[in-house]
Amino acid sequence: MTPTATYRLQLQPAFPFRAAEEAVPYLAGLGVSHLHLSPVLEAVPASPHGYDVVDHARVREELGGEEGLRSLARTARDHGLGLVLDIVPNHMAAVPRYNRALWEVLREGPGSPYARWFDIDWDAGGGRVLMPVLGGRLGQELGSLRVEGQVLHYGEHTFPLREGTERLALPELLDAQWYRLGWWRLARTELNYRRFFTVSELIGLRVEDPEVFAATHTKILELVRDGVVDGLRIDHPDGLADPEEYLRRLNEATGGCWTVVEKILTGDERLPAAWPVDGTTGYDALHRVDGLFTDPDGAGELLRRYRDFAAPAGDRGGYWGATARRAAYKVVTHELAAETEALARLAERVCATDTALRDHAPWALRTAIRELLVRVPVYRPYRTGGESVLTSDAALRAKAAFAVADEADAVDVIRDLALGRLGEGPDQEAFRARFAQTSSALRAKSVEDTAYYRYVPLLSADEVGGDPGRPAVSPEEFHDYCGRLARDWPSTGTVLSTHDTKRSADVRARIAVLTECPERWERLLESVAGVPAPDRHVAWMAWQTAFGLGIPHPGRLGPPLLKAVREAGLHTSWTEPDASYEQAVGDFVDAGPCGPPLYTVALFTREVEAYTRANTLGAALVQLTMPGVPDVYQGTEHEYLALVDPDNREPFRVRRADEKTELTRAALLLRRRRPEAFGESGTYEPLAARGPAAGHCVAFCRSGEVVTAVTRLSLRLEESGGWRDTALPLPQGRWTDLLSPDREFRGGASVPLAELFGARPVALLERADGTGESSRDQREGQSESPRDRA
Questions:
Q1: How, if at all, do strands 6-9 and 629-633 pair?
Q2: Buried b / exposed e across 573-591, counting CB within 10 Å, b at 16+?
Q3: Which UniProt keyword terms apply here (predicted)?
Q4: Which of 672, 623, 625 minimizes the C-alpha distance to 497?
Q5: Nearest to 541, CA basis, from 585, 600, 597, 582
Q6: Going by DSSP bridges, is the β-strand pair 6-9/34-37 parallel, antiparallel, or unpaired?
Q7: Domain locations in the chain?
Q8: Strand 34-37 to 82-87 pairing
């Protein structure tokens, strides 16, 4: 069954299945159809998120075990709700003491039946797996190692011993294992297993192997077959060797249950039509909704003022394209050095076995790999359509890095390998898959985790799936996007806040107001200029974050800001922290945004509260009624001001209802009451306001039954004289405003927007009579969805 709306719950030991069960009556009353649960399989003990799975055959005991999950499902069913699960096919926790499969590989080596589970390059490690867990070089840590029976201990880490080696002297014993204990810093250059991004504690899974797929999906498929689970969210499909083949196998195994993928689409990139899924998890929708409430001229003015204020040069983000490109070079040559070396080894093996490809220098192959990777404009190429990503123009520009034209021919070799043009041998296939997997890791680490923290003129645009270089989205662009969703992906997911967003939707909505008043923002910065900051880049970022939160507390603002400067890697980083700089950042937070000047920030926040309200309510209503299945992140039915994790992963609790809660409930109950108006047979029709302020209204009609109308750029609207005689033509019928049920409007005529938005900056209208064309009639003749075609 396709959900009408889902509600995301972050399960953790502090919020287990029992706590979720107690929340069911409230969530059913809110109007959602399904609970969307974070990963439920056995994970590392005390894990706050569950993405570090250690056993795919068991439901996590810390959450209440399988009986706890089934009890939650029964209670949910009793209240008319289903369950959607977040599953993690790409990786497991690389913690041998909890991960039995990895334990057996380390004990038995490549002969273990579990060795096929993981992408391990045994040759690269001299026949051993590097386990980068030591706090220092091995010689410095020998005294911290001890043997007890068949187990090697190092602090909280435990490792199995190869049979017959337990009585050897320690140096010989270490050399006799199928693994090599190493200094944690070696992971950057010498790691010989595929990992999740740059996280060595998460080891990649080979779910392309049918046996591995079966072993890691048995419990999930059992829960689907038993009716405990109705739908799936697939975490990070771009990490898989062949996402399309994996999704086909999963679709067949589940019988085609509702499935969405955490696929990040870049720019105008489209979800592959052949994928047998219902759509994405919704970051593409997040970007379009946020963009509606961003003023393009004001965003440009903020950028100019940022350049004047922070004088950014080089890596400090004065220009988005240059910032992203520099970040990509940094990540591909440093954090992902081990991954590029793995690709180079594969390329060398292919060239060594093909007479026509011999004599390409290893350095040239490595250079070609790096130069092509940084020029992939999206997260990764796929088996079909790869030429549109790894273009001949990209290859030409990659060749410019070579001083000698003949050496540049290595680019053609690497491009052909990545596109699968050089045969179908195991090394060729491995290269094609690993190039794509590395590409997605590079994009995530260089854009999401580096460039977004370096290019900060408008923090609300620095969000997954966004385009900081062009943050605004026009109403026409938004309507075109929604039309495509209604036609091709009517059951896709949509989101505004998730467990991974750097700032919640309400924080971003407030920051977006700055694009309507950049001169006021400049005055605020002038008024707090007396507080010394480590540098003006971090000052801009900190004051804008503080504004987004309203009245920040040091305990909430300090950690996200420290994370930001470490991710940016300009003055400090996670692996090479600069203690004096980080202390200066902390002192600045205490004295500035969280010190006496916070009252200046609070006053500015109150001055723009009406415009923040318009953005917040408008974005929420648009997301809840546009094409797709809306996902409501826990707590966001209320005003929800949160920063990056762990700030946004507090255990769920029911809060007092506010204006946003009532709007959310009205929209969700409407979706549940009229599923045909919003579902696969529903339609989407833009409605155009007429008059001098028409550009400040975004409105659309769903299946002739529901009208959504919101105010955009409300501060600019007020400055230009308000709505004046601008009006919105309504379709035929009698319309009731669900947010003010005592108000009715007669269709077939234009309603003055000053009247429509008299009580609040948004309106949700439901047709109160039965006239008009049915949604099925309107849908007739439209093309089938990509999932149907697949």
A1: parallel
A2: eeeeeeeebbebbbebbee
A3: Isomerase
A4: 623
A5: 585
A6: parallel
A7: 6-90+205-262, 100-204, 325-454
A8: parallel
Task: Name the burial class of residue 392, with classes exposed (0-12), middle (13-18) and buried (19+) by CB atoms within 10 angstroms of its CB.
Answer: exposed
Q: What is the DSSP string of 340-382?
A: HHHHHHHHHHHHHT-GGGTT--HHHHHHHHHHHHTT--SS---
pLDDT at 786 exceeding the cut of 60: no
Give the alpha-carbon dihedral of 640, 644, 647, 648, to 10 degrees.
Answer: 50
**What are the tens digits of pLDDT across the range 60-111?**
999 999 999 999 999 999 999 999 999 999 999 999 999 999 999 999 999 9
Burial of residue 349 (CB within 10 Å: 0-12, 13-18, 19+) is: middle
User: d(Cα 323, Cα 582) in Å, to the nearest integer?
Assistant: 23
The three-class DSSP label of residue 494 is strand
CATH architecture of the region 6-90+205-262: Alpha-Beta Barrel (3.20)
CA Rg value for the chain: 27
Do β-strands 258-261 and 231-234 pair in parallel, antiparallel, or remain unpaired? parallel
Residue 35's DSSP bridge partners are 7, 83
Contact between 461 and 468 (Cβ < 8 Å): yes
First-to-last CA distance in the chain?
19
Q: Element (H or E) spanning 518, and its range?
A: helix 518-527
Residues whose CB falls within 8 Å of the CB of residue 72, separated by 6 or more in sequence, listed in order: 17, 18, 20, 21, 24, 35, 64, 83
pLDDT in tens, 698-743: 999 999 999 999 999 999 999 999 999 999 999 999 999 999 988 9
> What percent of the chain stands above pLDDT 70?
97
d(CA 37, CA 129): 34
Q: Which two tokens stand for residue 471?
A: 């943050």
Q: Which helix (H) or strand (E) holds 632?
A: strand 629-633
Sole residue written with tokens 């057996």: 104
Q: Copy the structure tokens of residue 158.
A: 């435990």
Which CATH number is 100-204 given? 3.30.1590.10
pLDDT in tens, 537-556: 999 999 999 999 988 788 89
Closest Cα partner for 594 from 545, 553, 565? Answer: 553
Helix (H, G, I), strand (E, B) or coil at 227: coil
Q: Look up residue 561 and give its two tokens.
A: 């800001």
Please provide the average confidence, as pLDDT, over all residues in the chain.
95
